[in-house]
Amino acid sequence: MPVKSNARETTQAARHATPTEDPEPMRSRRPPIGPFLLAALAAVAGLIGTYLFFVRTTTGQFIDESALVEATELYGTAVKASLRFLDFLPAISAALGAGALGYAAIVRRRWAASLTALAAAGAANLATQVLKNDVFTRPYRGIETFTENSLPSGHTTLAASAAAAIFLVSSPRWRPFVAFAGATYAVGTGIATLVNQWHRPADIVAAFLVVAVFMAPAAWVVLITGRSWNAWEGFGSHPGSSRLWVALPTLAGLGAAAVAVVALVRIAPLPGQEASTTNYFWAGCAFVAISGYLVSVAASWLVSAAARRT
Fold it and tell me: Fewest CB atoms within 10 Å of the CB: 142, 252, 260, 282?
């Protein structure tokens, strides 16, 4: 009998000593906050650099203002269409964001993610207004322009923050597609404000960076509070997570970079060069596209790498 008792105790001890069946290492349960804070700090640095060069220097003001002035070359149907789009932009962005967050919270039970995304979007829009009206100033540098500061763009911040909020509450397998679609929406909004002469290119880029500052830490909060649903099988495992949605914005950014190079070469101070007609405008549009798609690709890779693998 004592032998049986010892055997039973040994069996029970071995059962308790059996390691957990969870194949995920304990260290990978919570994504590190470091990369998200680094992304936010990089966005802050980009925002400050954009302001200091394009608003505080004569060269920056001249480039930025030239793009705005040359937008008059596109007056006509395009302007009328973009005017209608911008008139409805606040309602469109609010409806898209509210619909996505409401669906995620009520149907998918992602309350923490929805509230986090909503708070980050609200903070980004509030920060834009504070920076534009109370922090940033536009000194006179000899360039004939509007004296009031317009950096960052409020319309672009609204569109980009709505797209980013939808990105955060989306399932991991759909995030690459949502990132591309949201970036296209935000870039289109920014270029429309430039065509309408509402904002300069730097105003639009600054808006993207303001949104990134708040959405980067918000993404980390979403991941750690929703580990159960933030799981996927990696790129290529679903149509929404196809590598195509990372390749397309990358190619769009490279194409925009090529446009910027051609436009800048044409306006370079070389002998025999003609005065610019629309080259500053196209360079400004390229600057907007590069920034918007670069932020979306970075967000897609950062969040996807931190999401739990199944």
Answer: 142
Q: Report the C-alpha gap between 280 and 111 in whole angstroms.
A: 45
- 122-145 pLDDT, tens per residue? 999 999 999 999 999 999 888 877
The pLDDT score that the predictor gives to residue 276 is 63
